[in-house]
Amino acid sequence: AILASAAGLPRDGHPTGPGHRIHHIRKQRANERRRRLEQREHVAKVQDYLASPEAAAQHTKLLDEVKKMNVSERIAAALVKVIEETESHEVHAEFGRRLSAAPGAPPPTPPPFFPHAWDAAELGYLDTHFSDAAGSKGGTLQYMIDTVWIITAALLCFFLQAGFGLLEAGALRAKNAKNIMLKNLMDACIGGLVYYCFGYAICYGGASRPDGIDGNAFSGGGLFKSTEAHDGIWFGVDVGMDTGGWFRTTSNYWMLIDVEEDEYYIFLFQYVFAATIATIVSGAVAERIQFRGYLIYSFFLTGFIYPFAAHWTWDPNGFINSWGICDYAGGNAVHALSGCAAWMGAKALGPRIGRFVEGTSKSLVTVNFKPVELAQHNVPMMCLGLFILWLGFIPFIGGSACYVNFQLGRLCVMTTLSGCSGGCVALAWGYMTEKHASLEQAMTGVLAAMVGICSSCGCTTIWAAFWIIAPISVLAYRFGLWFNIYFCGKFLGGPVDDPLGASALHYWPGVWSMIACGLLSDPDIWDATYGIEFSGRTTKVEDLTLDDFSGIFYGGNGMQLAYQLLSVVVITLYGLASCFLLFYGMKLCGTLRVPEADELEGLDATHHGGLAYTDTDVHIVPAGLRLRKKKADMDATKDGSESPEGTESHEA
Fold first, then answer.
1. What are the tens digits of pLDDT across the range 247-299?
2. Do the Cβ atoms of 186 and 293 come closer than 8 Å?
3. What whole-number distance in Å separates Cα of residue 606 and Cα of residue 84?
4. In which element (H, E) is residue 619 found?
5. Which residues neighbour 62 within 8 Å (Cβ) at sequence distance 6 or greater?
6. Kindly report the CA angle at 454 between 452 and 457, in degrees rounded to 5?
7. What is the dihedral of CA 350, 351, 352, 354, to 10 degrees?
8. CA distances to 64, 76, 97 from 49, in Å
9. Distance between CA atoms of 302 and 338, rounded to whole angstroms?
10. pLDDT at 121
């Protein structure tokens, strides 16, 4: 509660999330500008007062009083009385004027008979110093704490890219390891490019209004006809003209042009969120997608598809946000959306060669094929990637509010314990289904459980996450695997080959996390985090009560569950439709899947200059690093003859 109060955010009735934090900062900025204008006007009045005979007379009276006092306490008491009589706030403002005349200088030493003026000067100096030197307009200690925490969280979340790369490369065949790591690298690079250019503007940009609120219900850029309250911006880009109500602009968030310094730390954290989307999909399309096709989908997914969903969910103007849904860390806007993209990408690509063979198999339904598990080339690498992802998930969830709030410690503990719970449940599942302790099962259980609390963490208790949400998340992931192979194979034209199970791991636990909010939302936690003032519901704001937002098992009336499910339907349909156009459009253009020969040989050798691993002898020569291949050995390999005599000893 203290931290929330220090941030200027009341615990009751104030929604949390990146969009609300951004708009809070913008409101502070607007208020600071007004305050500084009023301060300049006040200083001008003070200067006139200090030059007047009245000020000189009061100063003389003050000195006379000081000379009569012999005890310091009595001096202080007399000074307080005299300063009050001479309107001490005028003197305080004078010290503010001296500071503004010499920015960056230490506070001037006030006369000893101005104790209250010293307090004002010191506080004024701190405010001026931390505002200007730190690059924040109206910066405070709370702002600096938020900045340090969110930047630290962003750096740890950026390390998720390494975890995804290690997990994916280890889970696939060695002949595609270099391809996997390159795609994860380009996710970070392409994601930064497009999110910087227009992704952030679509999420949270718009025409700044005096109250600091930007954008509209659909986009951070005003895609609707502007009104007096909403100046229109196309994708946050200033079109530079007034067209009679359409696209009349006042600011520009394209390429962060009008984004001031006090928002940069939020941009960094939100960029990491956006880049995660494409990386999640990487595992579903692995081992057979063209590299140029991968770059195209990464560009559109990070730059366009995700930003709209993020605006709807987290911006105060977003229509999903106005419903009062709980998607604290992106179980719906990040994981369910990326799960839809992963499923559609894998469906459009088709299975890898050898993944399904002729035969009959049954799991609730009978299908006319048999799934074949393809080799994993480095399971320890997968486990290392899992630990990195576990580490990154903690700040991923803990930093989602984009400021230090009363939830932080609880969220970090909940994330950690949910991973523990999911790992134990998945290990038990492995014992039952595979009759041995399975490392692979335990790893996916940890990840599924942490995905499963991304939405519900903002309104549920730790015990509910550990004992209910995390275990069911593991089961939801297992259902997703069955759905991809057997349900799709039986009813949707063929099985979906998702090498990493990304669609099952992110969509189904993400959806369950949204449902858990409607079932297990604690009214006390909800009230402290979100409040009850949401204008997008069918019920009038003044008629809303905590029962409308509480989970069914906490006495709620089911309204929260209904809106949670509605938001899932919206994001699911949006994700499937947009990614259908994206992936099947690339398939139609011939830029989606690699040729069969390239897939069989491996993408490292056919597309990236050579294998990631080699045991071939390497000889260093002045021209560089060259592989020593004896022509005789190559000829012997071709015609089946033995290597020439002496070759082995020469090579040794």
1. 434 456 778 887 878 889 999 999 998 998 999 999 999 999 999 999 999 99
2. no
3. 84
4. strand 618-621
5. 79, 82, 83, 86, 113
6. 100
7. -140
8. 21, 24, 13
9. 10
10. 42
Q: b/e map of 495-532 (b: 16 or more CB within 10 Å)?
A: bbbbbbbbbbbbbbbbbbbbbbbbbbbbbebbbbbbbb
CB-based contacts of 128: which residues, under 8 Å, 6+ apart?
Answer: 99, 100, 103
Who's near 581: CB < 8 A, 6+ residues apart? none
Contact 470, 422 (CB under 8 A): yes
Q: Please, are residues 260 and 29 in contact by the beta-carbon 8 Å criterion?
A: yes
- Judging by DSSP bridges, how do beta strands 365-371 and 624-627 pair with one another? unpaired
Give me 602's structure tokens. 């491996």
pLDDT along the chain (652 residues), means of 10: 37 57 72 70 64 68 58 54 51 48 45 37 41 46 88 95 95 95 95 92 67 65 45 42 41 76 90 92 95 95 94 90 93 96 97 94 91 92 97 95 89 97 96 92 97 95 97 97 96 95 97 97 92 85 90 95 97 97 96 95 94 68 47 54 44 38
Six-digit token string for 427: 């290990």
Kindly provide the residue ranges of all beta strands, DSSP E only, lying in 326-372, ordered along the sequence: 356-363, 365-371
Query: Residue 127 is encoded by which pair of tokens?
Result: 């405010």
Alpha helices in 362-469 (DSSP H): 379-398, 408-434, 439-451, 462-464
The residue type found at 148 is: V
Nearest residue to 332 (alpha-carbon basis) of 85, 578, 572 = 572
The encoded tokens of residue 444 equal 């996916």
Residue type, 555: G
Tokens of 389: 């992802």
Q: What share of the chain is helix, strand, coil (3-state, %, to 5)?
A: 65, 5, 30
Residue whose pair of structure tokens reads 């039986």 in the numeric block:
490
Residue with tokens 């990487």: 282
What is the DSSP code string of 315-336?
Answer: STT-TTGGGT---TT-IIIIII
Cβ atoms of 221 and 215 closer than 8 Å: yes
Q: Which two tokens stand for residue 155?
A: 């750096």
Q: For residue 512, what are the CA distances in angstroms to 17, 55, 284, 618?
A: 20, 71, 21, 52
What is the Cα–Cα distance from 296 to 286, expressed in whole angstroms?
A: 15
Rounded Cα gap, residues 410 and 403, in angstroms: 14
The first and second tokens of residue 190, run together, are 């392409």
Please count the other Cβ atoms lying within 10 Å of the Cβ belonging to residue 434.
Answer: 11
| pLDDT for res 230 | 41
Q: How far apart are CA 298 and CA 282, in angstroms?
A: 9
